[in-house]
């Protein structure tokens, strides 16, 4: 991380003070400052991201869902999916009913109804999906990001259609439709931003509020008229869940190292000419030889 400061007494002067990336000791407790760190506005550096993630992980009721990484060419789309695949019927067959011609013991013909059976299935991801298309700008230092995060949650099944009724004489058979389709709640954001190489973008606002109702009673005593109120209890609790997404973009050289920044002992824009190949037997260095 480098801080720049301009001398007011000089017309064109700049003092650059390099500072090594700061690390957070494992014993530092930052949970009490988690809410303040979530309100950071502007460019977020390596220390801010580490501090925010550490503080949020220490705060009760906060979970780190995933931390995927990928490399993509400029101008090409990429997808990150952390979800479960839910398969459900897409179409159902018709309900079949059959009325027998022979009389049974009750004096009426037998009635048979077959509910609609699933014919075709489809699937949908339930979880977090992120679509991103990075583009390196002409200055070769800033990166434009087309971002589309989507959070899909499964709410349950709903039954469509009405009951099927078959009547034969005095016999009436009623069968529920059995056509079930899932209900999903979706939260998504579409945005395009430009950030510096190595900067981190924080996206929030994907808030969801859950209201849970609890009806409890003591067996037998809770059903007594009037006095049963003393043995029954009702409650309602509301819980808000907010999803924060941290996106860090880095330019990578053809050799696989950071293009503009130095990472530990690896200088920027370096090429790995003599890599070491790890085999089941041992590690073998591979050197490049010139043509004779």
Primary descriptors:
mainly beta, disordered C terminus
The major beta sheet can be summarized as: 5 strands, antiparallel
User: What is the N-to-C succession of helices and strands?
Assistant: EEHHEEEEEEEEEEEEE
The chain-level structural class is mainly beta
- Tell me roughly what share of residues is in helical segments: under 10%
Q: In what range is the share of β-strand residues? A: over 45%
Description of the molecule:
The chain is mainly beta and 292 residues long. It has two domains: 44 residues, no CATH class; 206 residues, no CATH class. Helices cover 6% and strands 49% of the residues. The chain is built from two helices and 15 strands. The strands form six sheets. Strands 3, 6, 7, 10 and 11 form a five-stranded antiparallel sheet that branches. It has a two-stranded antiparallel ribbon with strand order 1-2. Strand 6 and strand 7 form a beta hairpin. The longest helix has 13 residues. The chain is flat. The relative contact order is 0.11. The N terminus and C terminus are likely disordered.
């Amino acid at each position: 991380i480098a801080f720049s400061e301009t001398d007011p007494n000089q017309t064109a002067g700049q003092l650059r003070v390099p500072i090594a990336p700061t690390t957070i000791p494992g014993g530092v407790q930052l949970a009490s400052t988690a809410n303040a760190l979530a309100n950071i506005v502007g460019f977020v550096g390596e220390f801010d991201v580490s501090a925010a993630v550490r503080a949020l992980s220490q705060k009760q009721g906060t979970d780190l869902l995933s931390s995927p990484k990928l490399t993509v060419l400029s101008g090409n789309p990429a997808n990150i999916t952390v979800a479960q695949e839910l398969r459900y019927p897409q179409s159902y067959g018709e309900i079949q009913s059959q009325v027998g011609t022979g009389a049974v013991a009750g004096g009426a013909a037998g009635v048979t109804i077959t509910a609609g059976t699933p014919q075709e299935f489809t699937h949908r991801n339930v979880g977090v999906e992120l679509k991103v298309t990075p583009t390196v700008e002409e200055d070769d230092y800033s990166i434009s990001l087309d971002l589309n995060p989507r959070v899909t949650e499964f709410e349950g099944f709903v039954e469509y259609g009405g009951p099927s009724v078959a009547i034969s004489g005095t016999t009436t058979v009623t069968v529920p439709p059995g056509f079930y389709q899932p209900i999903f709640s979706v939260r998504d954001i579409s945005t395009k931003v430009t950030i510096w190489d190595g900067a981190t973008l924080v996206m929030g606002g994907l808030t969801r509020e859950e209201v849970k109702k609890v009806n409890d009673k003591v067996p037998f005593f809770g059903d007594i008229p009037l006095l049963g109120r003393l043995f029954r209890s009702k409650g309602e609790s509301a819980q808000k869940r907010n999803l924060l997404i941290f996106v860090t973009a880095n330019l990578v050289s053809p050799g696989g190292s950071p293009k503009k920044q130095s990472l530990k002992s690896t200088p920027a824009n370096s090429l790995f000419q003599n890599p070491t190949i790890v085999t089941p037997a041992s590690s073998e260095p591979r050197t490049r030889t010139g043509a004779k």
